[in-house]
């Protein structure tokens, strides 16, 4: 018998092939490097730029109040947690912060995990079992999609914010198991808000619970930034799960699940990222506790965020740009083809504005865009500088008239 000899796959070969695929599909990314802190104005490629690319909604990432508390916790509690939380890595400050977060969210308890990404993996992976049905908005974040890959439930997708389609999916997939509808609170690419009151009402007709990933609603919507669930007055609903991140408006890193004490207890015992990955270092906990204090002690952050958002959107519309129905500080400007969006992003950077172009598969084909995120920290001057650059680039490229 003759054996067919083939070249064994080498590590080098694998890496080269995969990179080539990315280049061929124009999907290869090289992150821009910030040469100054994460602020409304920063430095890139040696140039001062207005930063419209971050998720730093409230301007907390480099806020002195957070940095001071982080430094205090670092000095008092050390550099690291030293173990996973369930073994020896739960410090008093971890528990205190979770109590503070639960009080802020008006929930019985809260559990903090390493990131928003791992929170979706941990919570979805824990709650969903074989025989359950989970129905997910088609534009939900990648971490939800990956979290659902870990769940053994039947998984279905409904068209973006389409309640008729959601009803169809629920009708077509009856089960005696747990039924869960999963949605982002605010959608990260379009900046639109989930119609949560309607989703929850529909879910209830089918005895389903609603899981809200509020990564982009926390710190942005609801009283003092309590999030999308509060924005819709649903914080006391036992069938609405509040999941979110501490990495965006709150300026640091982490994810949370806020709900009744027994949810926390179950997640501590079952959520794999919680069980098998080290807890946050003290400086992170300190900065986060300061962020929640700051938004309650000193008003004005959300007001500035929303004033800036309204001004920026209105001016973009006046110039003739399409912001795709965005309702929040996430403000996409649609360019159509990916190459056009990437070229516009390059030209904006040359004019001192940092805003990132996004194409397929991050957003649908033909809807490539630049995603702008306005923050509370931007001044009128920053926004006017950005708008002037947009106007010039839009005209040069024939995206707007004049
Ligand atoms: C909806 C949504 N969920 C989760 C995440 C992940 O959050 P984190 O950056 O804390 O891992 C993001 C961030 O991109 C997000 O937009």
Automatic annotation (TrEMBL):
<feature type="domain" description="Aminotransferase class I/classII large">
    <location>
        <begin position="48"/>
        <end position="389"/>
    </location>
</feature>
<dbReference type="InterPro" id="IPR015422">
    <property type="entry name" value="PyrdxlP-dep_Trfase_small"/>
</dbReference>
<dbReference type="Pfam" id="PF00155">
    <property type="entry name" value="Aminotran_1_2"/>
</dbReference>
<protein>
    <submittedName>
        <fullName>2-amino-3-ketobutyrate CoA ligase</fullName>
    </submittedName>
</protein>
<keyword id="KW-0663">Pyridoxal phosphate</keyword>
<keyword id="KW-0436">Ligase</keyword>
<dbReference type="InterPro" id="IPR010962">
    <property type="entry name" value="AONS_Archaea/Firmicutes"/>
</dbReference>
<dbReference type="InterPro" id="IPR050087">
    <property type="entry name" value="AON_synthase_class-II"/>
</dbReference>
<comment type="similarity">
    <text>Belongs to the class-II pyridoxal-phosphate-dependent aminotransferase family.</text>
</comment>
<dbReference type="GO" id="GO:0030170">
    <property type="term" value="F:pyridoxal phosphate binding"/>
</dbReference>
<dbReference type="InterPro" id="IPR001917">
    <property type="entry name" value="Aminotrans_II_pyridoxalP_BS"/>
</dbReference>
<dbReference type="InterPro" id="IPR015421">
    <property type="entry name" value="PyrdxlP-dep_Trfase_major"/>
</dbReference>
<comment type="subunit">
    <text>Homodimer.</text>
</comment>
<dbReference type="GO" id="GO:0016740">
    <property type="term" value="F:transferase activity"/>
</dbReference>
<dbReference type="GO" id="GO:0016874">
    <property type="term" value="F:ligase activity"/>
</dbReference>
<dbReference type="InterPro" id="IPR015424">
    <property type="entry name" value="PyrdxlP-dep_Trfase"/>
</dbReference>
<keyword id="KW-0808">Transferase</keyword>
<dbReference type="InterPro" id="IPR004839">
    <property type="entry name" value="Aminotransferase_I/II_large"/>
</dbReference>
């Amino acid at each position: 018998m003759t054996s067919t000899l083939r070249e064994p796959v080498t590590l080098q070969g694998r890496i080269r092939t995969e990179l080539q695929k990315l280049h061929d599909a124009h999907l290869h990314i090289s992150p821009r490097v910030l040469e100054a802190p994460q602020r409304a104005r920063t430095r890139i490629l040696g140039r001062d730029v207005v930063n419209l690319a971050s998720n730093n909604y409230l301007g907390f990432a480099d806020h002195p109040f957070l940095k001071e508390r982080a430094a205090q916790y670092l000095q008092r509690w050390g550099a690291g947690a030293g173990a996973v939380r369930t073994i020896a890595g739960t410090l008093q400050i971890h528990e205190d912060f979770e109590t503070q977060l639960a009080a802020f969210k008006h929930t019985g308890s809260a559990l903090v995990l390493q990131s928003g990404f791992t929170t979706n993996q941990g919570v979805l992976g824990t709650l969903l079992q074989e025989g359950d049905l989970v129905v997910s908005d088609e534009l939900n974040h990648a971490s939800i999609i990956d979290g659902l890959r870990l769940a053994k439930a039947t998984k279905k997708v409904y068209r973006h914010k389409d309640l008729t389609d959601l009803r169809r999916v629920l009708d077509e997939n009856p089960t005696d198991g747990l039924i869960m509808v999963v949605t982002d609170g605010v959608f990260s690419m379009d900046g639109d808000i989930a119609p949560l009151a309607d989703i929850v009402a529909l879910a209830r007709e089918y005895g389903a619970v609603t899981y809200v990933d509020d990564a982009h609603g926390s710190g942005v919507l609801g009283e003092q930034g309590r999030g999308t669930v509060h924005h819709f007055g649903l914080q006391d609903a036992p069938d609405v799960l509040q999941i979110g991140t501490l990495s965006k408006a709150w300026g640091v890193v982490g994810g949370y699940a806020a709900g009744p004490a027994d949810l926390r207890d179950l997640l501590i015992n079952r959520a794999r990222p919680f069980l098998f990955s080290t807890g946050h270092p003290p400086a992170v906990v300190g900065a986060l506790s300061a962020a929640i204090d700051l938004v309650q002690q000193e008003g004005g952050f959300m007001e500035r965020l929303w004033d800036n958002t309204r001004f920026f959107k209105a001016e973009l519309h006046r110039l003739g740009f399409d912001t795709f129905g965005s309702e929040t500080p996430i403000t996409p400007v649609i360019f159509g083809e990916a190459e056009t969006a990437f070229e516009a992003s390059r030209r904006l950077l040359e004019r001192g504005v940092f805003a990132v172009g996004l194409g397929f598969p991050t957003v649908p084909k033909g809807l490539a865009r630049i995603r702008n995120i306005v923050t509370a920290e931007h001044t009128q001057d920053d926004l006017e500088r950005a708008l002037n650059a947009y106007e010039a680039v839009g005209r040069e490229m024939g995206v707007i008239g004049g």
